[in-house]
Structures are given as C-alpha cells and as structure tokens.
Amino acid sequence: MHTYHTPLDLVRDCSPERPVALARPDAVATAARWFQVNFRGDVFYAVKANPSPWVIETLAANGVASFDVASIPEIELVAAHAPGARMAFMHPVKSRHAISKAYRDHGVTAFAFDTHEELAKILEATDGARDLTLIVRLAVNAAGAAYSLSGKFGVETHEASALLLAARRATEGRLGVSFHVGSQCMRPTAFQAAMAQASRAIVRAGVMVDIVDVGGGFPSVYPGMVPPDMADYVDSIERGFSEMMVHEDTELWCEPGRALVAEASSILTKVELKKGDALYLNDGSYGSLFDAAHAKWPFPVKLFRSDKDGACEVEGPLKPFRFYGPTCDSLDHMPGPFWLPDDVREGDYVEIGMLGAYGVAMNTRFNGFGDAETVIVEDAPMASMFGLAGRNIRLPRDEQQEERKVVRLSRPKGRAGKSRRRR
Ligand SMILES: *Cc1c(COP(=O)(O)O)cnc(C)c1O
Fold first, then answer.
1. Among 31, 41, 173, 415, which is disulfide-ready with 252 (CB 3.0 to 4.6 Å)?
2. Tell me: the pLDDT tens digits for 115-166?
3. Cα 330 to Cα 139, 280, 334, distances in angstroms
4. Does the predicted TM-score (pTM) go above 0.85?
5. What is the pLDDT of residues 328-344, one digit of tens each?
6. Structural domains of the chain sorted by starting position, each given as residue range(s) with its CATH number in brackets
7. Pocket lining for ligand 1, CB < 6 angstroms
8. How far apart (Å, rounded) are the C-alpha atoms in residues 226 and 48?
9. Cα–Cα distance, 239 to 252 (Å, whole number)
10. If you average pLDDT over every residue of the chain, what do you get?
C-alpha cells in the first residue's frame, strides 16, 4: 500500500477519480495497546467490524492474539494474517460443515450457541470432542446502545438455566457465558447490569463458569454521539466482574470490534455534482456509507480542493449538506447533516471520517461501483477515544451544544467530572 503523509498529499499527488479508503494503522495500534493495558482479561477482536488484512496484521503486531470469528472465510483470513492466533467461533448459528472445519482444520475449540439444537450440532460436528470451550450466549438488556444485538441472538433468561446445565454436562472442557450489550453502547453501566443478569443465570443453573465474555459494544466518537471515557467502561466491567458468582480462575474476555478500528479509516470521495444542499458523491450506502444511510449517522467531514492554484483543505463558514451515492437506487441517500464549507463544488474531495468500523467492511459492487483502493495516511483521525485527536469533532456551534447534552445524559450518575483513577 502506498503511504501519504496526509489525505491532502494524496489529493495533490493524484486527484483520484475513484473513492480511496484511507488506512491509519497507528490508530489501530493505539487502540489495541489501550485495551492491553486497561482491560484485565483477554481481548478478542471481532473481525466483522473490519476484516482488512492490514487491520488483522496491525492488531497481531500490537498484542491482540485472539479473534472473534463468525465464518470460515473469517477464520481463513485470521489464519493467513495472524498465524497462530487463537480464535473463538462466536456466531450462535453455524453450519455443521463450518463447525467441523473450524475444529479440525483450524484448531478452533471455542464455540458460542444459544439453543439446545445448536449445542447438539457442535457436539456432533466435532464427534463429541471433549476439549471444547462451550459458550452460552445470553440475551441482555440493550438499553443505551445505538444498535441492539439481542433481537436476533441470545437465550432468554427463563431458558438460560437449562441450556447452561446441558452445556456443563456435555463437556469436560470449559464453560462460558457471553452477551452483547449492543453496538456503540453509550452507557458504561450497561456492562455491569448485563453481568449481574449473567450472574443470576449461572446461580439459578447451579453451575460454575470458566469464562465470562462481555462481548463488544465499546463505543467510538461520532457527531452527536460522544460517549463517556473508555476507562468508565472497563471500570464498569471490573465492578460487574467482582460482583459475579464465579470462581477464582474464571477468565474475563471481551470482543471489541468498533472501538479497535472505528478511528482508523476514512474514505476520500469526490463530488460529482452539487444540487442545492445535495452533494452527489462517488461513494455511498452500497460502498462505505451504510451507517450514514441506514442509521442516519452524521459522520464528520473535511473538504479538499485541487485546482490550478494547487491543492488545499477548504475551511470557511459551514453549511449542512446531505449526500447521494453513485448508484441509481434512491435508497443511496445519506441525510447527514454533513457540515461543509458553503462553497463546496463539483470536483472537490470530501473526506468522511470515522469509517473504520462497519464502513469499509460493508462495500458492495452494486451498479459497478465499490472498487476502492486503500492507501496509508499518517495524520490523526478526526476524533479519538484514545487521545490521538481531540474527542470533540469539528462541529458548528448549535451542534456542539446538542453534543454536550448527549454527553451529560449518558454519564453514569455521580461520576461526571471526577478525575480518572487509571490511564
Ligand atoms: C459484532 C459483534 C461484536 C463486535 O461488536 P462491536 O459493537 O463492534 O464492538 C462482538 N461480538 C459479537 C458476537 C458480535 O456479533
């Protein structure tokens, strides 16, 4: 991959015709190290958030030796780019073929499930292997998350005891519980609450667990969604863990996806047309902008221009714009608002930030688009949970007020403003 010092250098050097994914491996490295230092347990990267080889390699080079995978292609990807890494197959519904191949060809022994039927599949597809780590996925309350991940998966509380007991009886290996509080979780205490729920389930079942896996959900920073400090999340998990009925050697695992990669990519798009407050770009909802279209997230943006006078970043009074992507589908619309200089025009470049998680990963080839080259850039991400950039993204004044409101609402009671104990 080619390296440019900044996105502006890329614009200056080659005025790209097609969208370019900007990779910031340093941001992945920083997030990985933060989790190593601050999370007292094993960190499994949830590969689906961004399966780019450079992400897997950077994580592995920075101490993340475990991966949460959901398919054989993800397993092969990790095996190719992080040889020797440990993997846990955390998708609660798998084909028998995938279970068997993961176990036999790739040495995967940890499997999640949320039904008796899937447990039976795992036991049968591994020929009753006795060295399995069986992880029961619990449904938990997802209040406070931008995306719930409990609707589709997780055994309900009243059925959890029977499943935990069945799993305990099925293996001489290890037993674990996992859950997912929902993606982009804005409330640190959601983890402690979910752990209390998990603890009640294991007490009711009368089993001891060897692993407590708190899943993903660790947030990143987006306009209008500035979460509390990441340290508040690990504090909540530590409190939750200390209150759980577990034995002394019970391991703590987490599966962050978004938090490890969100800051580490942005996309450089070109303005093909300006029609009033609508900008028609060469990337959209079938490319890297799924969340901008379907969850209506107003990602942060920067404007670059290259003309006969050279290339520059354009600043100036900001105005709200909305985006259309390049396909002919009218769903290919990102309402924003995206705040850009008033005089943005055809041929300008818009860098859309914070797309490292569920952005670049979502690219399709629909309508002949979606072919984005990746280059490395060395500037800071537009916002950071890990001190790489200000936590506040450039926003016009009334947006900033709204943002502060979100922060205040989402702070756990009585903790706002206190200095952090650990960093
Ligand atoms: C998607 C997913 C994750 C990662 O979630 P984030 O919100 O990106 O941290 C972790 N575990 C499982 C089982 C998932 O499906």
1. 41
2. 999 999 999 999 989 899 999 999 997 676 777 766 778 999 889 999 999 9
3. 35, 12, 10
4. yes
5. 998 999 999 999 999 99
6. 3-21+263-403 (2.40.37.10), 25-261 (3.20.20.10)
7. 46, 48-49, 68, 90, 149, 180, 183, 215-218, 255-259, 357
8. 23
9. 12
10. 90
